[in-house]
Amino acid sequence: MKLKFYNLVLVFLCVSVTSFAQNSRSYIREQIEKWGSCRNVAITLTGGDLALNWNNAYAVSGVPDDLVNDGLVLCYERGYKFMGDVPDVLKQKLRETSIDVYRIKFLSDGAYFIADKEGHYSYYM
């Protein structure tokens, strides 16, 4: 009996979190519709979502203002915007690289991977 109860609670929590995330994305959807295009999107099950567009436009929903041990780098045609804890080694690489960076993955220990749309890349691990 206890096992059935715990399974029911687990299912309820999963559905609730997913429903919350879906509903919180209305702001992101509205911005993309307003822009008429979108360069990149990051979504999570818990509703921390982000959309990027050309010319430094971005929309966020559910992303905490105070990112502890986390960071985010927004890539634009004319530069980058750093949010949270972005490792200095990555910031330095982005200042020095000739790669037209489109994708960035990094960890708090300084490891990173950057790439452009044509297949050029660099990493530090």
Describe this structure in words.
There is one protein chain. The chain is an alpha+beta fold and 125 residues long. It contains three helices and eight strands; from the N terminus they run H-H-E-E-E-E-E-H-E-E-E. The chain has a three-stranded antiparallel sheet, with helices on one face. Strands 6-7-8 form a three-stranded antiparallel sheet, with no helix packed on it. Strand 2 (49-52) and strand 3 form a beta hairpin. Mean pLDDT is 76; it is low at 4-22.
Please give a quick description of this structure.
This protein is an alpha+beta fold. It has 3 helices and 8 strands, in the order H-H-E-E-E-E-E-H-E-E-E.
Write the layout of secondary structure elements.
Layout: H1 2-24, H2 26-35, E1 40-42, E2 49-52, E3 58-61, E4 71-76, E5 79-84, H3 88-96, E6 103-106, E7 112-115, E8 121-124
Antiparallel strand pairs: 1-2, 2-3, 4-5, 6-7, 7-8
Descriptive tags:
125 residues, single chain, 28% strand, three-stranded antiparallel beta sheet, alpha+beta, globular, 8 strands
Question: Separation of termini?
Answer: 49 Å
Strand content is: 25-35%
- Element order, helices and strands? HHEEEEEHEEE
- The level of helicity is 25-40%
List segments where confidence is low: pLDDT < 50 over at least 5 consecutive residues: 4-22
Structural class: alpha+beta
According to DSSP, the number of beta strands is: 8
Average residue-wise pLDDT: 76
Number of helices: 3
Shape: globular
Radius of gyration: 18 Å
Lateral strand order in the biggest sheet: 1-2-3
Main sheet properties: 3 strands, antiparallel
